[in-house]
Amino acid sequence: MKELKHLNKYFLKYKWKVIIGIIITIVSKIFLLFTPELIGSSIDVVDDFRKGIITDVSVVKTELLINILYIIGAAIITGILTFFMRQTIINVSRYIEYDLKNEIYQQYQRLSLNFYKKNRTGDLMNRISEDVNSVRMYAGPAIMYSINTITLFVIAIFFMYRQAPTLTLYTIIPLPILSVIIYKLSKTIHKRSTIVQQYLSKLSSFTQETFSGIAIIKSYGMEQQSALNFDELATESREKQLDLVRINAFFFPMMILLIGLSNLIVIYVGGLQYISGEISLGVITKFIIYVNMLTWPVATVGWVTSIVQTAEASQNRINEFLKISPEIQNKATLPSDIKGAITFKNVSFTYDDTNIQALKDVSFTLKGGETLAVIGKTGSGKSTILDLIGRLYDIDSGELLIDGQPIDQVNLDDLRDAIGYVPQDAFLFSDTINNNIKFGKEDATHQQVIQAAKHAQVHKNIIGFSKGYETVLGERGITLSGGQKQRVSIARAIIKDPQILLFDDCLSAVDTETEEKILNNLKKLTAGKTTIIVSHRISAAKNADKIIILDAGKIVQAGTHETLIETDGYYKNLYEKQLSESSNA
Ligand SMILES: Nc1ncnc2c1ncn2[C@@H]1O[C@H](COP(=O)(O)OP(=O)(O)OP(=O)(O)O)[C@@H](O)[C@H]1O
Questions:
Q1: 384 C-alpha to center of ligand 1: Å?
Q2: Cα 360 to ligand 1 centre (Å)
Q3: Ligand 1: residue whose CA is nearest its atom 28
Q4: ∠ at Cα 70 (64, 76), nearest 5°?
Q5: How far, in Å, is the centroid of ligand 1 from the Cα of 345?
Q6: Considering the entire predicted model, what is its pTM?
Q7: How far does the centroid of ligand 1 lie from the alpha carbon of residue 391, in Å?
Q8: Helices (H), 326-392
């Protein structure tokens, strides 16, 4: 129960609902127990009439009628109270589920990129859905059934003991046995259903991956192999389901058997006591009803124990993530007014999961409003420079200054607010094009959206779609071409109108003519804004105020287009190669 203590703050938050729920549960059980008492006394009245103790039949009739009315009244009240019991306790569990999901989601948002590299998306999703669900089973049903069982048990045993102590002891003998058996069954059921769940998620991951990569599967003619793999997985899944069905099938027969056993004891021991005149016929009747009433709550003890154990394991997994403190912390409490000057002084950085040193002693200075182009072979560390400016990672050594201040002293929210970032792989949400562009500026007008799309040279494509800006993009934006996605992603950064713009090779899928137009627009739009353009093309770099060439994480050349084409090296070679390619084209 150590891990589940995390939920105490939520129970405290909803304490009134919980307390009212507990009171309602207790009262409803008291009303429920009226019924056996009333039925018992009705039987006794009839028996007394038969034995001649009561001679007037109208007395019997009146007594029975009153008892019937009481029984109906008690049933109605119990029904109403049961409704409110669920409305309070089960509602609280839903509120806790909601709060816990939000807490986990917010924690996920706070955690740094390294966390996401170490943990699989499926695992993250599982903890916020499956694990929260099993914790909810503890916060709601388990607590409700526990209160139910305790109340019913205490009151019923009290009533029973008062009327026939020996018979009570005999009657409850099978109940602990029942509880232990149900506990053992529940454990096995739980184990098997966890395996079934794992197979279900394997099946869905397999299906999702297959259909995401359907183009590759079809072009390699791998449909049959894929179907065989699916069949293999589905067969294993079916076998696991059947294992679960088999053990589930034991549950009810086992309960019926043990209820039957208790009933037999009541009839046999109770019968003997009736013959010897120790108890009345009504008591035997009451006991049979009590036994049937108690069986289910006692069975739930085993079930509840297994729920609590599962919830404890799930909360443990949730706590593991909640306890992690984000590597990137916002140390600044005051706001920072970002002007856009960026300085790298001997910056080195190693990705700790791969141990790859992506940057070695990198130094450059950009005044606010200047443009820097970063050129270099693939894997040379270009994107890493942009990641460090956005403080997705903290540097290992050297200094990274923003407006002359170390980056970790700058207010992180203001820094990220001042950055417009266009990543290498344009990521678009499954939403309308309009909303995807507005993601950069929630309150943008439609006119501003259109303007941004025009600057990114994608407006004409968008109005070509039948629903225009309201076109909903499929998962991962599959309805757009690579170049269109890149341009929508550029429009998203432009509309934000930030002080720092970071373009990570975002024109690679755009033809040179469109690239030229976009670059011309960007030149006007980014005037006065610090801009870093990562590219493999000279055309994107030539107008920059500064150009650096990276090789294996080191700056090997730096200068302007004019100076670099005069110096032997990577830039000049690339320039000459691309010049001859375009003149051959
Ligand atoms: N998230 C990461 N985790 C671990 N290693 C990484 C990560 N991102 C990049 N690297 C490694 O760091 C090095 C520099 O990568 P980076 O993405 O900065 O290069 P790049 O110049 O932008 O390459 P490209 O032109 O192919 O995009 C590479 O060797 C790469 O394998």
A1: 6
A2: 13
A3: 379
A4: 140
A5: 20
A6: 0.77
A7: 16
A8: 382-389
Among left, alpha and beta (phi > 0; psi -120 to 50; other), residue 19 is alpha
Q: 385 C-alpha vs ligand 1 centroid, how far in Å?
A: 10
Q: Identify the sign of the CA torsion 357, 362, 368, 370.
A: negative
Q: What are the C-alpha distances in Å from 71 to residues 65, 282, 414, 583? A: 10, 15, 68, 98
Task: Look at residue 477 in the predicted model and tell me its pLDDT.
Answer: 54
Quickly tell me which residue has 């197979």 as its tokens: 199
Report in angstroms the alpha-carbon separations of 149 from 5, 29, 179: 23, 9, 12
- Give the nearest ligand 1 atom to 536 CA: 25
* Pocket test residue of 382, 396, 503 for ligand 1, highest count of atoms within 8 A of CB: 382
Buried b or exposed e, range 39-56, using 16+ CB within 10 angstroms: bbbbbbbebbbeeeebee
pLDDT in tens, 225-258: 999 999 999 999 999 989 988 987 887 787 788 7
Cβ atoms within 10 Å of 412's Cβ, excluding its own: 17
Q: Which candidate, 489, 499, 494, 486, places its Cα nearest to that of 522?
A: 494
Pocket of ligand 1 (CB under 6 A): 351, 353-354, 356, 358, 376, 378-384, 424
List of domains in the chain = 3-323 (1.20.1560.10), 342-584 (3.40.50.300)
What residues contact residue 570 under an 8 Å CB cut-off, 6+ apart? 375, 376, 377, 549, 551, 556, 557
Can you tell me the distance from the alpha carbon of 261 to that of 298, in angstroms, rounded to the nearest whole number? 14
Confirm if 329 and 22 have CB atoms less than 8 A apart: no
How large is the C-alpha radius of gyration of the chain? 36
E strands, 50-200, are none
* Alpha carbons 179 and 279: distance in angstroms, whole number: 29
H or E element at residue 262: helix 223-275
* 167 and 283 Cβ atoms separated by less than 8 Å: yes
Q: What pLDDT is attached to residue 2?
A: 82
CA-proximal residue: ligand 1, atom 14 (nearest): 381
Q: SS3 for 222?
A: coil
8 Å CB contact between 550 and 378: no
Question: Tokens 């009533």 map to which residue?
Answer: 159
User: What's the 533 CA to ligand 1 centre distance in angstroms?
Assistant: 16
Residue labelled with tokens 């397999």? 206
Measured distance CA(160)–CA(269) in Å, rounded: 14
pLDDT tens column, 120-175: 777 788 788 888 998 999 999 998 889 888 888 888 888 889 888 999 988 888 77
Q: How many Cα atoms within 13 Å fall on the side-chain side of residue 57?
A: 0
Instruction: Tell me which residue has tokens 């970032």.
Output: 421
Residue with the smallest CA separation from ligand 1 atom 1 is 351
Residue type at 280 in one-letter notation: S
